[in-house]
Specification:
single chain, pyruvate-formate lyase- activating enzyme, globular, 358 residues, 2 domains, 7-stranded mixed beta sheet
């Protein structure tokens, strides 16, 4: 099989906007563009006197409320470390300046077609071929907040969970790169140079936590056995002062127990959103069974590692039984609700558990 190797093109596509935002006088006083990323949608992170503000550009959707809308984007903002969510005057001035800059430069971008979610999800019963590319990335460690980074060894996920946060966001980025449409779970980009980037970046960035978790990928999906990108990234982090936090749905994580035992700061977790494998089969048809995930957690814990579980999104379950399954093998469990319920309502109906949408 011939596998295409390409360079990252996100910066090229967004170059006019990024360059304009960094031009003298483009932003209100004291604000600077500190970081940007285009893997989970387009996120721009700004700093002023140590305070952070993130502006997200998502696919234009007139039906969704947003701070502002442009020709191509819905515009949103996020504030870090502050309970009050309304904008102060200097923050509003920043967001308005960014919106104006985007409007001035977005015509160089392709027009983004609407992408009905049902055309981008896969139920495990259709096309089985996977479009795989080897990508030379520009960066590996992406700042989320002071002292917090995330790292995606891959983009795209063969596990293809039907409710995934990444479905709409990654399809938008693929549209930005003018790539052909492909159902979620049927394409993957392998960041072949990610380990080398990590080894370089840990020498220049301030130490912090590094989250490797299944938002737009799973670090231990089957392709990891071929490429070992996750393992090699962790080996680079082992030689640093950074703290890796790894979350997966895959028992393949146990391949690296020997490595994990050499990393005293590591936290390692498993996504277990239900105790009921019949529910797993409805919502995560291509992902490993619940029993296999619990067995992997048990092996990780028996190896003396610091383990956790995540039930987010919570799927239909027997909560007491889930507690019994997880409690012997973890230090903590994080729980959270299903997002975008209208998008996934059909699965609840198919499972006969419509009451769980309430």
């Amino acid at each position: 099989m011939s596998i295409a190797r390409v360079g990252s093109s996100a910066h090229g596509r967004l170059g006019a906007i990024l360059d304009a935002l960094q031009a003298p006088g483009a932003l209100p006083p004291l604000w600077t563009l500190r970081a940007w990323e285009a893997e989970q949608g387009i996120s721009l992170r700004f700093e002023r006197l140590g305070a952070m503000l993130e502006i997200d550009l998502e696919r234009l959707d007139p039906a969704r409320p947003a701070y502002a809308a442009t020709r191509a984007f819905n515009v949103y903002y996020s504030l870090f470390g502050r309970a009050r969510r309304d904008l102060e005057a200097h923050e509003r001035a920043l967001v308005d300046a960014v919106v104006a800059t985007v409007r001035a430069h977005e015509r160089a971008l392709p027009l983004f077609a609407d992408a009905p979610p049902e055309t981008l999800a896969t139920d495990g019963a259709r096309e089985k071929r996977v479009a795989l590319r080897e990508v030379t990335a520009e960066r590996a460690l992406i700042a989320e907040a002071p002292g917090m980074y995330y790292l995606n060894p891959y983009t795209g996920c063969i596990l293809g969970c039907t409710y995934c946060y990444g479905i709409g966001r990654t399809s938008f980025v693929r549209d930005l790169d003018e790539l052909p449409r492909a159902p979620w779970g049927r394409w993957i980009d392998v960041k072949v140079n990610a380990p080398e980037l990590v080894a370089r970046e840990v020498r220049s960035l301030a130490p912090g936590t590094v989250r490797m978790s299944p938002l737009v990928t799973d670090p231990y999906q089957p392709v990891e056995r071929r490429y070992r990108i996750t393992r090699r990234c962790l080996e680079a982090l082992r030689e640093s002062e950074f703290t890796p936090v790894v979350l997966t749905r895959s028992p393949l994580v146990t391949d690296d127990i020997a490595l994990f035992r050499t990393m005293p700061r590591l936290l390692i977790g498993m996504s277990v959103p239900t105790d009921d494998d019949a529910m797993r089969a409805v919502f995560e048809p291509n992902a490993p069974p619940i029993a296999a995930r619990v067995a992997a957690l048990a092996a990780l814990r028996a190896a003396g590692l610091r383990t956790f579980a995540v039930a987010h999104p919570m799927l239909p379950m027997d909560p007491a039984r889930l507690v019994d399954l997880l409690a012997p093998h973890v230090e903590v469990v994080r729980v959270g609700p299903m997002a975008e319920k209208p998008f996934i309502a059909h699965a609840y109906q198919r499972a006969g558990r419509a009451e769980c949408l309430t």
